[in-house]
Amino acid sequence: MNKLLIAWNVLLTALIAYLIFSGTSNKSTEPIDEVATAIEVTDSLDEEKPKDLAKVVFINNDTLFKHFEMYKDLQDELLAEKIKLEGRYKRELEKLEKEYLDLREKAPFMTQAQGEAAQAELMQKQQGLLKMEQDLSVKFGNKENELVVKIKKAIEDYLTRMQEEYDYDFVLGKSNMGGIHFANQGRDITTEVLAGLNEEYLAKKEVKNDK
User: 192 vs 18, which has greater pLDDT?
Assistant: First the structure.
């Protein structure tokens, strides 16, 4: 844009000079030469303009994740892992609660030393349970991150392979809560990408199940 403005200013300046000069002398050809030069500059700048801008397309992430079969399966896998980890924690918590109730019943018949020892042991188990809760939480977080990376890689690998066919330079992710407020629907490739991803994933899943 700046180059075109510069060229236009050169052209306009040359034209004004020509009009002024032609009013005083019709014999000189210098202003005409300047106009011709300005036109050549403009033509040269037009030739330098890029033929095409970068092609940007987008995928509707809300639609993609709602209908992507791999995402559904991994969500089920993550839920199963969560239920398993919560079950382990719940069993340990119930054991600790039972030991606490047993201690309350036996406490009146214990010596002070026995009571203090039983209480210290119970406190130690409680600390162990808190650590177990933290460890399980970290383990679940790692599992969640692992599945997110797996899904992201599957999508990006597919888009990389399909780049030549769709001829895009950038693929944006659009969602209802995202930062893209408007997108030309003619640039939406969600349907095509979703169909391709599901076709590849289900084919691999079928082969895996047949083994």
Answer: 192
Q: What is the model's pTM?
A: 0.65
Mind listing the pLDDT tens digit for each residue in 114-160? Answer: 888 988 999 999 999 999 999 999 999 999 999 999 999 999 999 99
- Residue range 64-80: mean pLDDT, rounded: 94
For the record, the structure tokens of 207 come out as 């082969």
> Is residue 136 a contact partner of residue 89, using CB atoms and an 8 Å limit?
yes
Same domain for 37 and 118?
no
CB 10 within 8 A of CB 38: yes
The whole-angstrom distance between residue 31's C-alpha and the CA centroid of its chain comes to 58
Token duo for residue 157: 């690998």
Q: Are residues 107 and 205 in the same domain?
A: yes
What is the domain count for the chain?
2
SS (H, E, C) the chain: CHHHHHHHHHHHHHHHHHHHHHHHCCCCCHHHHHHHHHHHHHHHHHHHCCCCCCCEEEEEHHHHHHHCHHHHHHHHHHHHHHHHHHHHHHHHHHHHHHHHHHHHHHHHHCCHHHHHHHHHHHHHHHHHHHHHHHHHHHHHHHHHHHHHHHHHHHHHHHHHHHHHHHCCCEEEEECCCCCCCCCCHHHECHHHHHHHHHHHHHHHHHHHHHC
